[in-house]
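User: Hi! I'm working on a homework problem where we have to compare a predicted structure to a textbook description. Could you give me the structure for the chain below?
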Amino acid sequence: MTTALLRSHVSGDWYTAQDDGRPLHDAVTGEEVARISSSGLDFAAALDFGRRTGGPALRELTFHQRAALLKALGQHLREHREELYAVSAQTGATLGDSKFDVDGGIGVLLAYASKAKRELPNDTVVVEGDVETLGRGGTFLGQHVLTPLRGVTVQVNAFNFPVWGPLEKLAPAFLAGVPTLIKPASPTAFLTAKLVELVVDSGLLPEGAVQFVAGGLGDCFEHLTGQDLVSFTGSASTAQTLRSHPAIVRNAVRFSAEADSLNLAALGPDAGPGTDEFDLFVKALTTEMTVKAGQKCTAIRRAFVPRAHLDAVVEAASARLATVVVGAPDAEGVRMGALASLDQREEVRRSVKALRDAGRIVYGDPGHVEVTGADADRGAFVSPLLLVGDPDRAEPHEVEAFGPVATVLPYDTTDRLVEYAARGQGSLAGSVVSADPAFVREVVLGIAPFHGRVHVLNARDAGESTGHGSPLPQLVHGGPGRAGGGEEMGGIRGVLHHMQRTAVQADPDSLAAITGRWVTGAQRHESDVHPFRRHLEELRPGDCLVAGPRRVTRTDVEHFAEFTGDTFYAHMDEAAAAANPLFGQRVAHGYLVVSLAAGLFVDPDPGPVLANFGVDGLRFLTPVRFDDELTVTLTCKQLTPRESAGYGEVRWDADVTRQDGESVARYDVLTLVAKKEES
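Assistant: Happy to help. Predicted structure tokens:
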């Protein structure tokens, strides 16, 4: 009986192709579970819908509002994890594998939602870096701003992470205000289809923010513009083909690729048998071989060990692999499931044959595996395979068997280890397992140019380490050379990748209007109402208070020194202060100046200001001497409402000047201010 075609979701509706499509199979039983086709789909219309409907809807929201939607989506998907786990089992994944994929993807959504609220403004534009003064008079300024691209992110995903892959690409694009079109790899597309069904049915995201293609991309790339982006995960050969597509080249479409990767783990000479690090290395190696049946772009493929420890590593790793039960994900005791497809199994066998030309298999049989709860021939099962190879041969550094396969390679010196690492021509991840800081430094700095991420593992950090093969949303996921040369996630860096950085040159008032932040030289607005008496909604950038003067006396300085215990000679010793080339005489404490400034601008009565929670960028610019008179100008610089709280953050520019108008201290004061409706 023919199974149903997977549906695409484009242009605001579900779409089913009119042909029979291609069959997709359960990786464990070999049974057909769905069919897939995108025949007849109008890709030009889908991209246009994303640009005209999804993009404007997202750009109307602030970063914090988008973050709230991401959080809500993550919570919604978390409530439906069991449904995703059930479908995931048909991809050959064990429950542990499924959690790695499903929970990992949901975790990325939640992590990005949290980071956006902490690190991005509650606004629609990102202001980057400091204001640059471009003229002597301060009337011509420069500032970098980032705004969302007006296109669509087309994500082309690999088969191995059908949930995590789409979600880790979606999160930063969505936060940036750019809609997404998801194209999964066919073998596991039925799981991504279930994910998208849950996303659409949630009703949480604006229409057009997420579209989904079940099947090939047809002429999609023909319709890409310079405002669109492509995020690809897959083979290096496919990446090369897509990257050189005429439309991508012609329109300079941003193209990020994560491709093949001969990731390494290196055992330090100090980490011999009997050490914690030796055991950690062996555990990491065998875990990376068997989680997701080794179908991880970050899995360890090359395990470098000191020649003296080679036999011990092989023996220990083989013993651990011997305890791994292979079979159906729901069978008792199974720790490793099937590969994603029979085609993938044949690809792994071909790759292992090439690796054997430069070494020997020391554990496992590529043609035979004992399977629990399933048919070894009908399902895409393969044994964990450990090889010992010759590091001076090309094959271990060029051939990736994308399955439960790793090659142990001996090295004699640290220099040779670094040289061997470079032969991989670029990797996503590498681990250095050692408790010797000198060895760790030499290896990490030696291999860093060839790696997107380096993981140092030893007894000290093992308890908290997330492991060699776990990309984290806070850090860059990608690598140079054959690994694709792209970057994904990386915290807010991933958001900014979807935005255009523009250098704006303008006068202070225009720049303040563009960025929504007061800048030095822009107009200030004084009134009879103290700024601290105003609620969040009543404040505007440029609102200010000028307070002072306050004379600084010898008595003030000596009292402050006695009270705080800060009796530094520049404040208390006439002769020593006179000899100091910076001062020439006793001066006031910098923190006394800041304290006196606070005394000038703080309104003492209860009001909308709830708390002072920080000071940023404090600089003492000019010494304050006895009998100098201080004036402080406090200006509202930036307002950041908190969506789910009864208050927001207000950043104030504090400029403390003395009687001649020269600034003696400059800093930002951070306060929490109540909203009017919450009072």
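For your comparison, note the following. The chain has 20 helices and 29 strands. The first strand starts at residue 8 and ends at 10. Good luck with the assignment!
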